[in-house]
Structures are given as C-alpha cells and as structure tokens.
Amino acid sequence: MAVLGKPENEKQAPETPALITRWKLVPGWVEPWRVRLSDWGKRTRFWRRRLLLFLAVVGPGVITSNVDNDAGGISVYSQAGAMYGYALLWSLIPMTIALYVTEEMCARMGVVTGKGLSDLIREEFGFRPTFFLILAGLVVDMGNVCAEFAGVAASMQLFHISKYISVPLAALAVWILVLRGTYRQVEKIFLAACVLYLSYVASAFLAKPDWLLAARDTVIPTMHLEGGYLLMLTALIGTTIAPWQFFYMQASFVEKRVSARQYAQARMDVLFGSVSCMVIVFFIIVCTGATLFVSGHHVINDAGEAAQALVPLAGKWAAMLFAFGLLNASLFAASILPLSTAHVICEGMGFEAGIDHKFNDAPIFYSLYTGMIVVGAAIILIPHAPLEKILILSQVGNGVWLPVVLIFMLLLINRRDLMGDFVNTPTFNVVAWVTAVAVIILTLVLVYVTILHPSGMPGTSG
Amino acid sequence: MLHATDLLGGEAYDRDGHFVGQINELFIEPADQPNRVARVLLGRGKFLPLIVRYDHIAFVAPGVIRLNVEEKDLEHYQPNEAWLAMRKDLLDQQIIDTSGRKVVRVNDIDIAEQRINGTVELRVTQVDVGLTGAARRLLHGIASPGLVQGLATKLPTRVIPWEFVNLIETDPLRRVKLRITHQKLERMHPADLADIMEDLSPFERQSIIASLDEETAAEALAELDKRLTTQIVETLAPQKAADILEEMDPDQVADVIADMTPERSRDVLSEMPGEEAREVRELLKFEENSAGGMMNTDFIYVGEAATRDEVVAWIREMDVDVERLDTVFLIDGTAKFSGAVSLGRLLFAAPDERMESLKMEPLLSIPPDAGDKEVFELFDKYNLHSLAVVDALGRPIGAIEVDDVVSRIRNR
C-alpha cells in the first residue's frame, strides 16, 4: 500500500483491514441449535476431513471399473445367470481381487509418475512396441464400440424405439458430451451414470430370488468340470479385465492431477470401484439366475434378449429396469471407449490429447474420437452387418492384447528409477504375477475357443 | 543427411575393414560442443563395450561407420553423466519446442555430416517430431531403405531445429552437467510457459520451476490452474517457495496458500518477509468467494486534494508496477475512500487539476464480505476496470481488478 498526501489525522490512516460483520436479528431458538450443530461438526471433523480428501480424488477408479459392466459384459453376465443360475457367483470374489490388483498398479503408476501408460511404454520400450500396442488397441476398441451401440439399439428396442432413431441420437449425445465438456464436468456425468447401475439392484429384487442360496453360492465355490461351464467362467473374466481400462484409468488419474500424496485416496477409489463393479455383476447374475435359469430359459444370445425374456417371468418393471441399465451401460461405455482409445493413441504417438484441449489444439485426438463413434454407430445401422464376426474379432484382439499390456505394466511398476519407493513389494509382486498369469491363460483359452468354435462361445466382447 | 534411426543398430568397422561392434548409442558432450556427436558406443555382445571418439570416424553411411584407427586403440566404455545419450535421453522422450512453445515427443534425430581433414564429424541439426520420423522408426529394418526414404518424402515433415530444443531433465545435478538452462523458457510469455507446464509430469514441472528465476516462475505459476500451483508450491523447499511467492500478487499468494496443509503454509509464510506475510495473512481471513478473497492489497491511493502533477511525479518516484496500473483511488481527510480516477483521466488532466475534480461517477466500492456474484454484477453494469474494497469504517483495504474477475468467471 502506498499513500500520497496523507490526511492530517494520522491515527485514522488505513492499516489493518477489519472485517465487517452484518448483524441480523435472529429468533432465540436458533442459538441452541446452532451450538448443537457446531458441536456435531467438531466431533465429526476427522471423518469429514477424511471424506473430503477421498471425494477430491474419487472418480477414475469408480468410473473405470463400472464401465467394465458394458453391453458386452452384461450379455455375458446374463448368460452366466441364465445358463448356470447362481453356480458361478463364487467367481466374483477372485475376480474382484484380480481387478483390484491390476487396476491398483495403474493407479499407482499414474499418481507417482504423472504419465499415462502409453507414455511410459513409449519412453521405456521405444516406438515400435508402442505402435503395435496402439494399433491392437484401436482394432479391439473399435469392435467394443460397435458392441456398445448394439447395446443401445437392443435396449431401446424394448421401449419400442427403432435403432435407426436411437443409435444416431446416442452417437450424437455421446459426441457432444465430450466435445463440449471439460474433464471435471464429464467426470461428474460419468459418476452419475455409475449410480444408475443401481437399476440392476432393483431389477434383481423384483425377480424375487432365493437370497440365501445366492449368498451361499457366492461364498462356497462349486466346480462343474464341464466344457461349457469352464468356458463361461473364462468369458466372465475376459470381459471383466480388459486392457483398455488400464490405459483409461491411468490417464484419468493423470488428467485429474492426483499427486503421489493422494495415493491412499486413489487406492480407495480403485478398491471402491472394483467392489462396486462386482456387486452390480452379482445382482445381474442373481436377476437372470432367479428367472431365466429357474424357468428353464437357459440359452440367450445377448443382454437385450435377456431383458425381453424377463417380461413374462419377473414383470414389465423388472425388464424395463434391466433394459434401462443396459442402455445406461452402453451409453456410458460408448463415450469412454473412444475417448480412452484416442487418448492412448495420441499419448503414445506424441500428439496433443485430452478433453481439456480445444479442437484446434488437438485435431488428431478429436478426429479419432469422432471417427470411432461414427464408424461404430454406422456399422450397427447397416442391415445384416457381420456383427458377430466383428465382436469375435474384438474378443480375440482383447486376448492377444491383454498379456502384452499386463507384462509391460509389471515391468514398469518394478522400475525403481520410475516409481521410487512405490515399486511393488515382494508380496504384492507374487499376487500380481499370479493374477497376471492366471488372467493371461484364461484369456488365451477364450481366444482359442473363439477362433475354433465361435458358435459355442458365450458372450461377445469385453 | 542421416538420421539417428539409420545409425543406431548399424555396424562399425575399423581401419582395416574388420568388424568391431554394433552402434548402440550416440553421445553429445554439451559441455564441449552443443551439437557434435562426441562419442559412439559400440556393443560387442559378451565383450566389454568400446567407445569411439569423434575424430576416430573416417566414413559414415546409413547403417555403417568406418573408423580410422584399429580396434585396440579404442577405449572401454565408462558411463558418463555429462554425456547426452540420443537413444536413452532423446528418442521417444518429451522435449520443449521453444519456438513453437509446445511439449512434443522426439521421433527421430536428423544428423548432418561434415568432412574435416580426413575425419567425419556428425552434428545434430534438428529433431523430427512428425510422421516422417514415425514412419522411419516403424519401418526401419523391415522395409527396404529406398522405400522408407520414398515414403518419408511424401509425408508432411515436422522438425524442430536443435537450438530450439529444450531438454527436460529432472535430476538437477545432471542438468548442470548437461548444460541445460531454461533461459529460452524465461523469455517466453508466462501464459505459454504455463501451458507447457500443464503438459508435463509433476517431477518435470517441479524441476522446471525450481530452475527458473523467481520472477518468471511466479508469473508462470500465476497463469497455471490453481490446483497445480498449490501442488507445485507445496513440494518446493519452503525457502524457494517463499522466494517465488514474494514475486506474486498477495491475493494470488493467499489463494495458493489457502489450499495448502496448515503446517506447510505456516512454513512458507514464516520464510516470507514480514510485511508481505502479514498482507497474505490478512487476505486469508476472507472467504475465497468473497470480495475480500478476490481483492489485491497492492493498490495506489492518494489524497483527493493532491494535484495531477503531484500524483504523476509521485507514481514515477515510487517503484510502481506501471503495466498493471489502471486506476488511482482517492481518500479524503479522514482516510475514507472518496473516489477513483482512471489512468486515462489522469493522463489528459491539466497539470494543476485536483484529483477530486477528476473522480469518476458514481462512487463505487464494496465491503470485503460481499459475494463474488455482487462483484461480477458491478463490473458488468459499470464496465469497471477496478473496484475498491472498503472496510466498515469506509477505509480502502484493497482493490479488485478486472483480470481477477475474468479468471474467476472462467473457473466457475
């Protein structure tokens, strides 16, 4: 502060600013409540602070895990329920662990290095591996995007809306969402979409399942040494652990600028995400298991068909909720998959990426994003498109892609020059490698079966 | 012209044409010459790798180097931190393009050869960040060299001359050894510098902020996203953080410090000079979204009885940041806020005109606890450039400027 021509009255010269308090007349009963409220506030301060710290980070983990339950995933879960009832529920617990272990490593790499997974692979393994990894990603994700729009078409058909109206509208909505938004806005919308998955919980309750039996089958594993059962188990894992999700999650932690200091919260986010993802899977399987399986309707081809079949068995509302869940999941994944793919490609190849850029700053990013949505939606609209083949191709691609990504991840996370003290502990390494090898073997089995016996294959895409 | 891709993985032969080893790495020694390839590392399978000095090279072609010495004259390789390794430090890494003001990734490195009495010197001329480099990296060793070359000429090129390449090295010791300075970054506009920093990882941001001079660092931080600013300042040493914050406006400092943990903010504030720390502490008392939280305590006020010439002479004498100055506030005999005079009015006033006759109508001010919405409305309605904040006694305690308003509105 500087002053010229100081007033004669020195004492009143401005020195420290004083706060103005605006007094208002308040009724007498307010005061005791105010005191009670502030006491409660003080007592819960510790937990509120914890919660706030967590809420500042929450998002990437929850969103990524929930997108796993996309159209392809829901198809497989409904099939699992219809075909084997509750008999596959036990696999959800090991799957939760596998999901958490793999995703946690990505979250850790993201917050510690501040770089995306494709960035790290490019910097540490060079151009060519990155290029092929990215190419595989593009092919696989393209197939998955098709599956999502197929999910939109199937669910809207249940509401008697033609796919020629629903799919273009969905594509446009998804496209605008990302093009017009900033990361923070888009993340809020995605988090809201996660909540809508609860429609599956409602739909499961409407199906009036035998909860006791479901609970028992979740805790006690039952093995059927029979081809179809094992294959279904493999498909469950194949749709749940998909390589693109690692890229997406790491990139979102980076874009959200979560720092290593917030690692504990980031890990909670991932844990919460993997558990909530599996809880939804539980309800989907219970819903179809209690209705389709019990009434002998064992064979369904996709989630849309499952919703149709629910109408006579569990009532119109359960079917509607089921279809609504499918629509939400498809839309959700249809916006995230192209986004993630564009991210991965641009990061790895060194183009500007991220929805916080404007179109002119990141033309390749936005072109890729737009292109994938347009192509994905267009394929669904072609009459008699070879949809089955596309989905099988993306499933195979997934299986080939996943082992490579997992191995790169494990190599990177153990690099002390990148991760410092955040490298895997020996125990975690054992768990991580066992998980990775198990997932890789199961996925390769699925690829093998997909190529040799495409007709007998449950599920379609991840 | 050669490319790093052509040479790396190529073969080296000695004077007599005997095979010596495979080219594994090219080194520049920035302390000696900024762009000359000073050393070539030859890998020899299970034998110790050898190092070739620049004056040992007699001939270079894509995939081949011939030396003018024998194998036994070459030294064994000793890792040297002061050497810039092209494969490890440059290829596939991010660099800052100081002419295009962007963070880019290196796809390939262009190298020129120069014949100097019997030896060939290799000099790095530019780095390739476009599709040509990408195509070479992808196809090298798979497609025929002619095909790669043909394809490369058809693709659009994107190259950055070597003198505009700013390396990002997070280890401060190695940065000194490699002679990496950020002088070119310091000459950039702070907003561009902030954009660049947003594209980097936390370590890289940290290392750049730490190596910039305090003034530039402060200007760049002021342009950054507030979350990022807090994150960066928090990880700096308190002394360094205080030095940088001193260069910022108190209201920005208050915003940054408000989001830090209490212990950190206490440490940083205690490192700042008393006067400034006091101003920041005062500002911290206000809600962030109130007029008090938006205001700046660096402003100019003069007695309303002063003449135009007195004021101009006084501003000249005081070391005022003239670029930011656009309004002079007035106080009356009792130190109460009594008006504002825009710089334009001051400029064209008669030399002996009194300030009170120049003041703008209507007389506007706002209490510090007013909400930001109220502030925005006032700025919008009266097309203000700045607005005085006054305390309960009507004394001016700060000023809100239009750029504060713009950035608040944008961040809502």
Protein described:
The complex is a heterodimer of chains A (462) and B (412). Chain A has one domain (58-456): Amino acid/polyamine transporter I, CATH 1.20.1740.10. The longest helix of chain A is centred in the C-terminal third of the chain and has 34 residues, at 316-349. Chain A has helices at 30-43, 45-57, 60-67, 71-84, 92-113, 117-125, 127-158, 163-180, 183-196, 199-206, 211-219, 227-240, 243-255, 263-293, 303-314, 316-349, 363-381, 387-413, 416-419, 426-452; one strand spanning 2-4. Chain A is mainly α and 462 residues long. Chain A is built from 20 helices and one strand. In chain A, helix 7 packs across helix 8 and helix 7 (127-158) packs across helix 17. Chain A is globular and about 55 Å long. Helices cover 74% and strands 1% of the residues of chain A. By secondary structure, chain B is of the alpha+beta class. Chain B folds into three domains: 2-91 and 106-129, SH3 type barrels; 202-285, MgtE N-terminal fold, CATH 1.25.60; 301-411, CBS-domain. Chain B contains 19 helices and 21 strands. Chain B has helices spanning 4-7, 86-90, 131-139, 145-154, 172-177, 183-186, 190-198, 202-211, 214-223, 226-235, 238-246, 250-258, 262-271, 274-284, 291-294, 308-317, 343-348, 372-382, 402-411, and strands at residues 2-3, 11-13, 19-28, 37-44, 47-53, 57-61, 64-67, 75-76, 84-85, 94-97, 102-105, 108-116, 119-128, 159-161, 165-167, 300-303, 327-331, 337-342, 365-366, 386-390, 396-401. In chain B, strands 2, 3, 4, 5, 6, 7, 8 and 9 form an eight-stranded mixed β-sheet that branches. In chain B, a hairpin with an 8-residue loop joins strand 3 (19-28) and strand 4. In chain B, helix 7 (190-198) crosses helix 9, helix 9 crosses helix 11 and helix 11 (238-246) crosses helix 13. The interface between A and B is large, with 34 and 55 residues. Strand 1 (2-4) of chain A pairs parallel with strand 16 (300-303) of chain B.
